[in-house]
Specification:
CATH architecture of the domain at 77-343: 3-Layer(aba) Sandwich
Largest sheet: 5 strands, antiparallel
Strand order of the largest sheet: 2-1-11-10-9
CATH topology of the domain at 77-343: Beta-lactamase
Order of helices and strands: HHHEEEHEHEHHHEHHEEHEEEHH
Distance between the termini: 183 Å
Length: about 425
């Protein structure tokens, strides 16, 4: 059908009127959302394209820099009480320090030794001591449960011991001392005869027996800031724990691999004390600890120049400062006269003294005496006789002659006897 020009014009006018009428009337809710999405789609597409272009530009320019998050921890109790303002000759970063000779109880270095502070995971040293003193079987299998997970909720350290893990009591104590595993320490206290409450009472009773009057425990892991003690008390704890070879061995192991999980798989655990892993120290017992209220802590029993020393460092400010403080103390002790000279790196070791030969059996037999030797009189030293005086010839009196000295007469030769 062929339209005339008038019909075509009329059709266009009707279309314009329809569009105007549609714009004037309100749209239904579904139609309005569709129209809005249709209009916003090009804008979103443009924003996405702009973002892709920026990413391509950054890739061409180089890798993006990672933003390092700065974690601000709450100040420790030592910082709040002003202990860090205490001066010491070594400029230690720890607010509390103590070095004691284990054999003589002589204090070689001291800084705020009576200050009572949170001790963090050093608590686990008392946990192990209570388990050993109770005589519990270290071969008995124990299982990590959800109670151990709930009891260590505040731990910043991610635990490798998942619920369902079955390890012996000795292996749990090993992880508690070496790797400071909180769930392991909690399981040791939970499985104690009488439960966790009886275990905490045993910890405080043991502290009283050792004369630790400034010490108090509320749980076996050290996550609570209410576990508190002083450096003097902790030196007594280290001395008592060092009497048990199993605690010395388990606390100084460098690393261990144990099966972990309901479906056991091997997991490697490492010692939390860098001085043990370094191998330059002769450490026979150690334990580290850290929570925000306690700062970085460490206690050790180490041998320096033949002397067994107990070293306590509490409330250290930096991550590696407790290790640096221990090195400063070792150098200072080596330079002092408190240790033997041959303990210094710059001085040679003395040669061993050879023992005297034993006396003959006849001399050592009972009833026999050694005959006395005759006394030899002292002899005067020999002196040459004085030379005879020889008169001089006077040139003014040449007629005076010097008497001739007698000539030595040879003895007659003895004739050889015929054979």
């Amino acid at each position: 059908m062929v339209l005339t020009p008038i019909q075509t014009l009329a059709k266009s006018v009707l279309a314009v009127l329809a569009l105007a009428l549609a714009a004037a009337l309100p749209l239904a809710p579904g139609q309005a959302e569709a129209a809005t999405a249709k209009k916003a789609k090009p804008v979103a597409t443009a924003a996405k394209a702009k973002q892709k272009s920026a990413v391509r530009g950054s890739r061409k320019a180089g890798p993006r820099k990672k933003v390092r998050r700065v974690v601000r921890r709450a100040p420790s109790v030592g910082q709040l009480t002003g202990l860090h303002n205490t001066d010491d000759p070594l400029d230690l970063k720890s607010s509390v320090a103590l070095v004691v000779d284990q054999q003589t109880d002589e204090v070689l270095f001291s800084k705020n030794p009576e200050a009572v502070l949170p001790i963090a995971s050093i608590t686990k040293l008392m946990t192990a001591l209570v388990v050993v003193d109770a005589g519990l079987s270290l071969d008995e299998p124990l299982e990590v449960s959800q109670d151990d997970v709930r009891g260590t909720v505040g731990s910043r350290m991610r635990s490798q011991l998942r619920p369902g893990t079955r390890l012996s009591r000795g292996e749990l104590m090993h992880l508690s001392l070496m790797s400071s595993e909180n769930r392991a320490a909690h399981a040791l206290g939970r499985t104690y005869p009488g439960g966790l409450g009886a275990f905490v009472r045993a910890m405080n009773r043991k502290a009283a027996e050792l004369g630790m009057g400034d010490t108090r425990y509320v749980e076996p892991t050290g996550l609570s800031a209410d576990n508190r003690s002083s450096a003097t008390d902790l030196a007594r704890l280290v001395k008592a724990a060092s009497e048990h070879p199993v605690i010395r061995e388990l606390s100084t192991t460098v690393e261990a691999v144990l099966p972990v999980g309901a479906k056991p798989r091997p997991v490697q655990f490492r010692n939390t004390n860098g001085l043990v892993r370094g191998g330059e120290w002769d450490i026979s017992l150690q334990k580290t600890g850290f929570i925000s209220a306690a700062g970085r802590c460490v206690v050790m029993q180490a041998e320096l120049a033949g002397r067994q020393l107990i070293m306590v460092l509490l409330d250290s400010a930096g991550r590696y400062s407790r290790i640096g403080d221990a090195e400063r103390l070792r150098r200072w002790l080596s330079e002092q006269t408190l240790l033997p000279m041959f303990g210094r790196k710059s001085a040679p070791m003395p040669e061993p003294v050879k023992p005297l030969p034993p006396l003959p059996a006849a001399v050592m037999a009972p009833g026999l005496t050694v005959p006395s030797l005759p006394v030899v009189p002292a002899v005067a030293p020999w002196t040459p006789p004085p030379a005879p005086a020889v008169p001089l010839i006077d040139p003014n009196k040449p007629w005076v002659q010097v008497p001739a000295l007698p000539l030595a007469v040879d003895k007659p030769a003895v004739p050889a006897q015929p054979r």
